[in-house]
Amino acid sequence: MKTIVAMILLGKMAKVGVPVIDMQKVDGLGEALVKACVEWGCFRMVNHGVSVELMAEMKAVTASLLDLPEEIKRRTISTEQGKGYIERNPGTPFFETLSVDDIMSHDEFCDRLDASPQQRHSGIEPTNDYHKHTYACTPPRWYRASMGSQLIRRCPDPTYAEPKAQPQSLIGLGQAPTLAQGRRFTMYPIIREVIYEYIKAIRDLAELLGRKLMEGSGLVGDLFDGWCCQLRMNKYHYCPESVGLSGVGLHSDPTFLTILQDDENVNGLQVVDKYSGESLPFDPVPGSLAVNVGDIAKAWSNGRFYSVKHRVTCFEPKTRYSIVLFVLGPNGTKVEAPSELVDSEHPRLYVPIDIKEYRNVRTSKRLHIGNALDLFRSPAT
Ligand SMILES: O=C(O)CCC(=O)C(=O)O
């Protein structure tokens, strides 16, 4: 009984606690953002300027792309740490993610997923009656709910049979059909447009955040100007067996900040309270966007910002999607706290950090909860 009361109270606290910030607020926006970064390491944005239609379209694109056969998604695997397509694996059996590693090269990402004319005739896809079936195809299931754009046409082969139910093991549950099973895919220009528009809108929002964080810190300038950003499209393959288990385990982000479109229909994101260490629900609010502060922001702010630890837990057997923009850090220069944030009371905590090196150290030493920063401490501290 006590536990239930405590859980209800925590739920209430989280709703009251995690700041919700109106991005159209004229006065005090910078200060409100900095306060949220310091005290919570996370916040939710409303009136953020990204239209709900575009958010819905991007979710539809995400669902469609992650529904592609494995061999197509694998074309975007990368050898670089933290980049490229990550398929389900023993560490994260319910989690799968596609990545536009550098948002400036989203066209290259789309090209890789798209079947080129050469590939269409290479034997990877069946060649019989290709066009006939390409244009006489079944709309995807979200088609009617979207703006009426058919983003990917699924083209059933006349000889195609629905795959038999997969064995209910943790890995391999509900595997996407493979091309060998007879489906054909063509990426349509509208997919590129949606990805492009979404990246542009979220990037503009990130720039506003960067300017306001500077302002709230008593500085002036475009903090994120020219910085590297990565877009990830996540799918959580939840099923009855995953209820109560982790979709993604406890971690902080190795980024400056993360702008998250979480799934308005499926909760599960939890954040660790800076002061009490309690896990609190960070539940979705339709139409809003969430922000998590990462390790690089903690270093930049000379330890003021809280790099929030968070996890995603499965509470119900429903597929969950999320779309994240990682604002990683500057391109080609190291991150360090501006001199205005360093004084005798706040001595410089960290040496200048190269974001790529930071990510590699974090991964190789398995320091995923912000503790990799300890390896970048200034000698004096
Ligand atoms: O899917 C989510 O809601 C959060 C994903 C996440 O934790 C991350 O991208 O770091």
UniProtKB/TrEMBL annotation:
Molecular function GO labels: metal ion binding; oxidoreductase activity, acting on paired donors, with incorporation or reduction of molecular oxygen
Residues of the Fe2OG dioxygenase domain? 225-329
Keyword terms: Iron, Metal-binding, Oxidoreductase
Q: Which SUPFAM superfamilies match?
A: Clavaminate synthase-like
Spell out the InterPro entries in the cross-references.
DIOX_N (IPR026992), IPNS-like_FE2OG_OXY (IPR044861), IPNS-like_sf (IPR027443), Iron_ascorbate_oxido_reductase (IPR050231), Oxoglu/Fe-dep_dioxygenase_dom (IPR005123)
Q: What Pfam families does UniProt report for this protein, alphabetically?
A: 2OG-FeII_Oxy, DIOX_N
The entry's family comment says: Belongs to the iron/ascorbate-dependent oxidoreductase family.
What protein name is recorded for this chain? Fe2OG dioxygenase domain-containing protein
